[in-house]
Amino acid sequence: MGSFAVVFPSLLFIPMLTALFPWLLAVAATPPAYVLQGQLTDVPAGTTIYLKHYQSGWHTIDSATVDATGRCEMRGLLDAPLLASLQLKGQKHMYQLPLHPGDELTFTMEPNPKRETFHFQARGTVGVEQWQQFQQDIYPQMFGVAQLPAKNRGLRELRALVRRTPDTFLAAHLTKNYLSRQASQQAFVDSMTTVLARRQPALAETQNLSTRTHTAALTEKGGEVAPDFTLPTAAGPSFALSSLRGKYVLVDFWASWCGPCRAENPRLRTLYQQYQAKGLEIVSVSVDADGGKWRKAVSQDQLPWTQVSDLKGWDSPAAQLYGVLAVPTTVLIAPDGRVLERNLRGEALEKRLRKLLP
Fold first, then answer.
1. Distance between CA atoms of residues 221 and 349, nearest Å
2. What are the C-alpha distances in Å from 57 to residues 60, 74, 99?
3. How far apart, in whole angstroms, are the C-alpha atoms of residue 66 and residue 280?
């Protein structure tokens, strides 16, 4: 009896089909579409609603038109999860929600009788529930103070939320944009960054945290050459940090909205007057995104030294170069361009300058 072989045509055809029709591979690799279905109350038919994302400026991802029953729908593709915002045409207020490729979400918008906004509610994913928990229960306990005490209840609850959901985009987003801004939370941020690098290495938020924590650790030790940067000044022309080589330089990362930063400015002004003639320069790098507020703060606080900013907020490449996770952050640089010390402020800074510039 002759031998025979069993052939599985489907297995044989796969390489042939993909060779003849390479677009099949692309189809197979395409992520599922997100779907957003909304029900809006007291919104005129024909009103446009936009889906936006902020990244060094606002970008429209999608849009839809509200029909006569108050319904609308958007569907499309995303390269990666993000924090999206919904905005009705003609209104300033935005309503945020985390959005992943393939998410199927519903949302409602009902007029808020006490405000010129809408009561917004979204459903459909764990991420949306977590974001609403953060906004409604946690963030109000943190609002209004740039640097919170480590025992702040909102910070405790936020750490717990992040620990419970290390595989979600929201865990990385909240760690990067809220916890990392708090000086008291750096040990937790370092630990969580290690977890996120293992669980979600491809996320931009994870990569940003990894870069910043690594750079912060380097500059904390001191001894290496300070990274150079070139930024626009408040007056307009560009300024390069390396142009101050040969002097002691205090690089001060701050923001107009940062209370502790503004409180430190009078002391810095006194130190500048005392030590500039002896070889000290100060460069203030603002992480503001609003140029008007930045320049107003510079004028109000009467800051005579170099003021620079690219107005990219926390996305500023200079802040990332120096691993800035919170403001105020200072870096003291020697005349040879090497980092001497990080986060010197108040009496500690005065004492250091007295030794360096007697």
1. 17
2. 10, 22, 18
3. 60
How far apart CA 314 and CA 325 sit, in angstroms, is 9
Cβ(86)–Cβ(97) under 8 Å? yes
C-beta of residue 36 within 8 angstroms of C-beta of residue 51: yes
Let me know if domain 230-356 sits in CATH 3.40.30.10. Answer: yes
- Which residue is listed with tokens 């490449």? 317
Decide: residue 304, CB within 10 A, 0-12 exposed, 13-18 middle, 19+ buried: exposed
Hey, what are 335's tokens? 């005349």
How many Å is the maximal CA-CA distance in the chain? 104
Question: Residue 70 has what pLDDT?
Answer: 97
Q: What is the predicted pLDDT for the residue at 8? A: 42
Q: What is the domain class of 34-124 according to CATH?
A: mainly beta
Can you tell me the distance from the alpha carbon of 130 to that of 161, in angstroms, rounded to the nearest whole number? 8
Average pLDDT value for residue range 251-258: 94
CA distances from 100 to 35, 85, 94, 170, 172 (A): 10, 13, 19, 10, 13
Q: Of 286, 279, 271, nearest to 245 (Cα)?
A: 279
Query: What integer is the mean pLDDT of 200-222?
Result: 75
Give the pLDDT confidence of 294-337 residue by residue, as tens digits. Answer: 999 999 999 999 999 999 988 888 988 888 877 899 999 999 99
Asked if residue 259 lies in contact with residue 146, where contact means CB atoms within 8 angstroms, the answer is: yes
Residue for token digits 């692309």?
Answer: 26
pLDDT at 215: 63
* Residue 29 pLDDT level (bands cut at 50, 70, 90): low
The answer to whether 327 and 287 are in contact (CB under 8 A) is yes
| Predicted confidence (pLDDT) per residue in 121-169, tens digit | 999 998 999 999 999 999 999 876 667 888 899 999 999 999 998 999 9
